[in-house]
Design a protein that fits this description.
two-stranded antiparallel ribbon
Length: 107
């Protein structure tokens, strides 16, 4: 089923988090579309983080962020625990992906 989904006209692959299925899809996409870009969000952890670390020097792989959100800091305040973490700007990251794909098509 994955192979059928990836056949045809596809501009890019985006990987966010995930487990072994994402790694399978990454390898399949590279096989079927070797020159198309792959965008990874390293900060979401899981397979995307592993793939970002393994393929950071690849020409077609683009790591969109390099912040580790997996270590959320907790602080005690008045006998209550509150989590402190940065917000992942998904809409901005999506805009970057679309812009890069459109720019590559226009060149």
């Amino acid at each position: 089923m994955r192979r059928e989904m990836m056949k045809g006209k596809i501009d890019a692959l985006v990987c966010i988090g995930g487990m072994e299925g994402v790694e399978i899809e990454f390898a399949l996409f590279r096989e079927l579309h070797p020159n198309k870009p792959i965008f990874l969000l390293k900060s979401t952890g899981g397979a995307s983080k592993i793939l970002a670390e393994k393929h950071s020097n690849s020409i077609v792989v683009r790591i969109l962020d390099d912040k580790d959100y997996s270590n959320i800091k907790t602080e005690k305040k008045e006998d209550k625990y509150s989590e402190k973490f940065d917000i992942i700007p998904y809409s901005f990251i999506t805009a970057l992906i679309v812009k890069e794909i459109l720019d590559s098509k226009n060149n």
